[in-house]
Each structure stands twice: as structure tokens, then as C-alpha cells.
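Q: C-alpha cells for this one, please.
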Amino acid sequence: MSEDSPIVEISERAIELGLKEFFQNNPDSVLLPKDDGEAREIIAQPWGDPSLKVVLPEADEALAPLVQALNQVLLPKRFSAIWHCETKSLEVIWTAYKLADSYNDLKSREFDISLEGTNIHCRFGRSTDILLEIAKHTFPASNPGVTQFRNLQSYHRYTKRPEQSETSIGEPISFFIEGLEWDEEDLVKKVNVVNFYMTYYDTSSPIVLVHDDDSDVREAAARDRYLIDTFPEKITGRYIDEHILTYWMSAFTGNEITRFNLYYRIIEYAALHFANEDTATKLKLILARPDIGTQESKALFDILSVFASDMSGKSDEIPRRKKLLEKCVDPRILWRDIDANKHCFTNEACFDGGYCLPPLIAEKATFDTFKIGGVDTVADHFRKLRNVLSHGRDQYSDGLISPTRRNYKLLRPWVNLIQSAVGEVVIYKDAL
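A: Here is the predicted structure, written as C-alpha cells:
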């Protein structure tokens, strides 16, 4: 394993501790000395995960088995698991808590998957002593984050069993995937296939969590809490379409793909009842006829004809939505969100799945340049995102946006932007 590992600089202290092989195989991990805010030496960022730390015991008799265990594993960033270098197997960290009766059959579950000439052996079984030794010395270093401490908390309790209540602690169980060579990207693909077949044949099956690598995406700034400086003391309200309200409230929960699509549905729904300027002019002329009181049938026929013409064909849908946004949305409202996350809108956003959204604005854009045609450009980008998110694959780019954590981060500023735009649509659409 170490022969294929990247060349990394190993500290003299790590070599002295006998951990050279571990740090060669795990270059994201860092050895921190006692004087770095720690009472004892620690390995920070095991699994490349800042929420965990491995605390090195001071006594040689306790340190030796931990060093031996660490030197035999690779801690994969994408999995809550350890990779055994010698046996070439992935041990997925599942649980040391007592299993519910409905899960007891999993203890003996074992199966093979033949995948394009490769036989993958999968099984549930008792966790290895190597995993238990690592878990014994692994502690939280911060909030759990999305990895939830790599499922190690129950294992840590198990290793401290004499001092802990045994109420909920059972036998530590892992899920093993065997018969593979170490290649993280290839392993992710194979694990996703394993997950599919496990859930296809057992709808209650546990799955192997695959953690997204979103380190290349900068966090977007949160949307300003208040629309204006403070919450107003008096609001002159009106009743709002119940369907729009349902979409609006539902869009405050769920992942970014769900939220974006719900906000866009409000645009689609509102645009169906939005008359363009030409239609509005024709209707006003009909209603202004002096003889409308004695020619009701003809006036009704003319009104229906105008609406039939206005609503005909899908070709009118896109201009209608764009016109709705142009009429309702003040460019200053949008610019506030754009300026807060300018780096998100001046660069191409390339999503997991292959779809790339072009930049919204130029690097040197200002509000003065944006306010001229900016709402129209935003409407185009909303539509492009909606098309890719709502369909299996974009017909023009042949790309898609997968439901990954990295993609959610990329979409977050766009959710903020469409929320601001839709809020204006809800408020002002009936005033037009």
C-alpha cells in the first residue's frame, strides 16, 4: 500500500512514534504536539475530517497496539469506514448499539455481486479488533457535521464498556466489502451499485454512506435575514392565492434542488395568469367600449378570443415568465443577493453530473451595469437550472445535476436569489 502512496513529508516525531506508514497512507491527517492547545499529542483530521481526533495515549503499553492498528489502515475520506491494507477490504463502520429484532437477520447476511468480471464479496459481521482499537482512542473535535463522527460514538462506548451502562450497547457490527483493489473513485462507483442491490432486495437495508467531496466549493454567504433594515411594525396585507402559499411555505424545507423547483413553480403558476402588455391593452379596449352593456355576448366572445390567443402554444411560456419577473422584481433586490456572493455568480458553476451553468455576471459588473437587462438574464439562468433539475438530463449540454452535497452548496446562492425574486412576484403580481 505504501509503495503507491503519495510522497508526503513525515515529521521526526511521527517517525519516532512509529507512525510513518500511517501518515504515508493518510496524508490528510496531521500530528499535533501537546503544546498546540492539547493536553496530549493527537492526530487531527483522521479521515480528513476536522470533527474527529485520535488522542495518543502516553503509556507505551497503550500506545503500541494503537500504532500497530493505525499502520494497517487507510482512513478513506469518502466513507465512514477503514480500508485494511493487508486484506484489501473495506470495513464500513455500522453500529455497536443493540440491533432491533427486525435487523437480527443481518448478522449472518452474506452475498456476492459479480460486476463486469469482478466478484465483490459482501457480508455483515463482527467488527475487527483494528477498528475497535482505533475507535477506543477517537474523540469528537468539533460539531459532528454531515459525517456524524463516522458512526464511531457507539464503538467508543463499547470499548469503554466496564465504565458504561450496557443498556444500549450490543455487539459491534461492521459491513465488509472484499475482493477489490484500492481506488477511491472506482470504489465509490461500486459501493453505489452495492447500495442499489441491497435496497432493491431489502427496502429496510442499511446502506453505505458515501460522503461527497465538496472541498473545492466555497461556502455561500447566508441571505440577509431582513428584507429591509428591520421588521415593519405595520403591514397592509391581502389574501394570497392558497396554492402559491403552499409552494412558498414548503420551499423553506428540503434540500436545495427541492427548494429551487418549488420556488420556480410559483413563477410558472403566476405566469399562467399574467397577461402580457398586448393582451392587457386589448382587454382594456374591449372593456372601454361604450356599448358593452348592450353587447355583452360579443364582448365576452372577444375577451375569450384574446385570452385564447394569449395562452396558445408553449412558445409564449418563456416570454411570459420573463415579463412577469421584469414587471415585479426590482433589480436592486436581486443585486443585494448577487453582490453578497459575487464569486458564485461571476464563475461557471460545474455540477456533479456534468452540467455547467455559465456565469451570470462579468467579474467587474456593478449594479449600474446589472440593472440594464439583469432581471432578464437572471430569468434565463433560472429557466436553465429548472430544466436540468426537473429532467433526467439536459438535452443541450447532455449534463445533469446529481443530488450531492457538493451540488447543494453550488445551488445555495441560486436558491437565495430565486427566493428573493419569487417574494417580489407574490407581492406585486396582482398589482399589475
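A few notes: The radius of gyration is 29 Å. The first helix runs from residue 12 to 16.
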